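Students often ask why we bother encoding 3D structure as a string. The short answer is that it lets us treat folding as translation between two languages. Here is a chain of 81 residues written in the first language.
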Amino acid sequence: MLETAEGRSAHQDTFARDHLPDRALWPVMDYSTLAELNYPEHLNCASELLDATSMRAGAGRPALHFPGGSWTYGDLAAPSG
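And here it is in the second language, the structure alphabet:
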């Protein structure tokens, strides 16, 4: 584990972070006007990624493909249900 001024990090390659400009030069990115990115302060990501996608695209839609098969959104949501 690498200790930095910002805290602990598992990343060993710090080249990009070490060569960033001063924080005052960073752009301000305001996405508040994009409705699709308007999430609540607290978010259950499993619900958003599995349940909402399952309802929108269908529980039978493949979510993960792997050698020898695939799992659908319904397959992934079933154990948490």
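Translate back mentally: The chain is about 25% helix and 20% strand. Keep this in mind for the problem set.
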